[in-house]
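Hi, here's the filled form for the chain we discussed.

Project: internal
Contact: R.S.
Residues: 67
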Amino acid sequence: MGVIIAGWADAGLNPETFWLGYAAGAAAGWNRKPASAQDLTTRFYNSFYGKNTVNIDKVYQLLSTQA
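And the returned structure, exactly as it came back:
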């Protein structure tokens, strides 16, 4: 049928932090082949920021703790 992923204007979070959830949630909803959260996260980082990105997990952790 499909998937709906929504962000409800969480106070204080940097909008950039939502993209990982949008992409990983949609990927899990549209693909029959199971994938781990780590695999989806790695694929997202490579697609959006490139393969040469360093410590992007830490960047996302810091952005997420702003709220």
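Let me know if anything looks off before we file it.
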